Amino acid sequence: MSTSYIISQVFTIAMYAFLAVSYVVKKRRSILIISTISIILNALAYVFLQAWTGLAVCGIVFARNIYSFWDYYKYGEQEKHSTRDIVVLVATILGLIAVAIPTYDGILSLMSVFGAALYNYSIWQKSPMAYKALGIPTCILWIAYNAFVHSFFGVVLEGVLLIASTYGLVKALKAPKKHKRKK
How far apart, in Å, are the Cα atoms of 93 and each of 81, 104, 115? Predict the structure, then answer.
C-alpha cells in the first residue's frame, strides 16, 4: 500500500464522516457548509487515488453548492421550483457530461457521473420519498465507481449509506399514511 493510497482513504473516511453529519443537521445553511467540506475532502481523496472523473465530478458538485449558497442567501428557502432551479439542474447535468468526456476511462469511470446526476435530480425533487428511493441506485453507482478506483473505504462506507437508504425507504413505505380529517 502506497502513502498516496493511505492518505486517500483517510480523506475518504473524513468525507463520509462529514456527509453523515450533513444528514443530521437541521439548518440548510449548516447542511450546505458541511456538505461543501465533504465535497472538498472527496476531491482530495480522488486526487490521491488519481481518479480524475471523480475529481471532475467533485468540481461540478462544488460549483452547484456555491450556487446553492448564493441562491439561499438571495432568495431564501422556497417550496416551488423556479426557472432558475431548472436551469441550474440542466447546467449541472450538462457540466457532468462535459467533464466525463475528457476523463473517460471506460464505462465504470462514468459511474461517478451517473451517481452525481441521479443525486442532483433526487435533491432537486424536494421530496423526501424521491430522495430516499433514488438514494438506493445512487449508492450502487458510487459503490461501483469506488470499486473501480480501488477505494476500499469508499466501497464500505457507501455500502453503509446503501443500507441506510434502503432502511429509510422501507420505513417510509411502511409508515401509516396520515389522513386529514374532514371537518
Answer: 17, 16, 11
Q: Which three cell numbers stand for residue 89?
A: 439542474
Chain mean position to CA 114: 11
pLDDT, one tens digit per residue, over 120-171 is: 888 777 677 877 888 899 999 999 999 999 999 999 999 998 888 888 888 8
- Look up residue 121 and give its three cell numbers: 435530480
Give the whole-angstrom CA distance, residue 54 versus residue 85: 24
- Report whether 148 contacts 115 (CB < 8 A): no
Among 117, 118, 100, smallest CA distance to 109 is for 100
CA distance 47 to 171: 37
* Nearest one of 35, 79, 36, 48 to 149, comparing CA atoms: 48
Set of cell numbers at residue 48: 490521491
Helix (H) / strand (E) element for 104: namely none
The separation between CA 157 and the C-alpha centre of its own chain, rounded to angstroms, equals: 13
Burial per residue of 41-72, b for 16 or more beta-carbon CB atoms within 10 angstroms, e otherwise? bbbbbbbbbebbbbbbbbebbbebbeebeebe
Q: Look at the chain and count its residues.
A: 183
